[in-house]
Amino acid sequence: MTTTTTAGPAAARRRRRGDVQGSGRLAATLLSPTFIVLALVVGYPVIAAFRESLYQRGQGLDAQGFVVQGDKFVGLRNYTDIFTGPNSGAFWNALGNTTFFTVVTVALETVLGVAMALVMHRAFRGRGFVRASILVPWAIPTVVSALLWRWVFQADGVANAVIGKQVLWTTEGFHAKIAVIIADTWKTAPFVGLLVLAGLQVIPREVHEAARVDGAGAWAGFWRITLPMVKPVLLVAVLFRLLDVLRLFDLPAVLIGLHKDSVETLTMIAYDEATNLRYGPAAAYATVLFVYVAVVAYAFVKLLGADIIGDMRQARTAEPTSGKKKPLTSARKVTT
To answer: At residue 117, does pLDDT exceed 60?
Structure first.
């Protein structure tokens, strides 16, 4: 005698939902130490900076003309002063410089980094030496790199000797922006090239061989095979560079100097406020920069990267839908 017991799709969905919940609890338990560390090193400083931005310290006078001691709650006054106050022009200038450096340098570094990766990926004699020489600028500290380029761009330096003109690169003007862009691109383009090289090395050789058999040339193979397959790694490299350039400080500060309108960035304004003991406005500048970086990163991931939140929601809601369309049945045969 043979008996067949069949479980319906509802039971299968309940078992699978239980497995997912169990895996989620295990993942949360394993990741909890990381979340705690992130809350301490990221969450608390952000909250503390926002709280500090709502206060002012030592910037007011009492009825006798003495400086008011302690913190004074001013609400959003520090933020309104940033956008519409007497020094709002400096903020908009720094915001424009920061955005300009981000767009130009990241674009140049992406193009040069991909070119470097393609060169380093090819098999030729002396490839190890070429890879090492390309990665040397990335290994040099930023301050040391800025000092080297300051020597190059001085009045009697190498740059003026090459172009045959006397350009004061480290003074006010658009040429100061060009100097910062050249120095930053020289230093960090190898970083993009290194990440892209890692992506190129995981592409199977058979894919390119099949494309050549089908008649695809070098340019078509790059656009239709290499670039799409290396896109995830390239997007990560570009995202890292976006976040890094938006916080640009040390390179223009050492190469050109502080209080230069041509190269002043948001981090430099925040630093200047903090060194003058105006911690409330400095925290407000830092908070605005944090929001700006977060918005740019989210927009970049949303437009060009993967929709992580959407993928998670789709995965959670896919179970009932798939169960309705394709009922899962499990049969167990018991023979007596």
So the answer is: yes
Q: Using one digit for the tens of pLDDT, what is the confidence trace for 282-325?
A: 999 999 999 999 999 888 888 775 444 444 444 444 444 444 44
- Closest to 184 in 3D by CA, of 249, 235, 229, 120: 249
Give the mean pLDDT of the chain: 80
Between strands 55-57 and 71-73, the pairing is: antiparallel
Tokens of 303: 């437009």
DSSP SS3 for 334: strand
Q: Label residues 9-31 b or e (16+ Cβ within 10 Å = b).
A: beebbeeeeeeeeeeeeeeeeee
Are 269 and 90 in contact, with CB atoms under 8 Å apart? Answer: yes
**H helix intervals, 39-87:** 44-52, 77-84
For residues 17 and 228, which has the higher predicted lDDT (pLDDT)? 228
In DSSP terms, 283 is beta-bridged to none
Domains of the chain: 2-52+317-335 (no CATH), 86-305 (1.10.3720.10)
Total residue length of the chain: 336
Q: Between 20 and 157, whose confidence is greater?
A: 157
Adjacent-strand bridge partners of 2: 335
